[in-house]
Specification:
Blueprint: E1 4-10, H1 39-49, H2 54-59, E2 63-71, E3 77-84, H3 88-99, E4 107-109, E5 112-114, E6 116-128
Antiparallel strand pairs: 1-6, 2-3, 2-6, 4-5
Amino acid sequence: MKFTKIFLLLFVASVVFNGCGPAKQYVKVDRMPEFPGGFKNLVAYMTQNVQYPEAAMQAGVQGTVIVTFIVEPDGSITDCHVTQSLSPSCDAEALRVVKAMPRWTPGMDKGEPIRVMFNLPVSFKFSNDEDY
């Protein structure tokens, strides 16, 4: 009997840096925003908090949702939206977890905290226990 394990594959691709709105647009920043404790803690947070939606599992939906958000100068997360959709249930789950994230260490430019747009791909995949 095969057992299915859910793997949350997470990688961070922060490609777009933007001051957003009428403020400066940042093409290059001195320091990118960071999840508390760094990338390793971001992966742990996402793994512990993302739950594969039952509807998506039953439908065999696998793939990646990309959530774009702004890390504000105070480290809060705003303007969350899905920029690459997978399914309504997976999109909603990825957004739920991103919106619940703790404050980040903000991005810095010339010693000042700035707004930085961040893209976070969240992968929903199945795997068989027998693969291990």
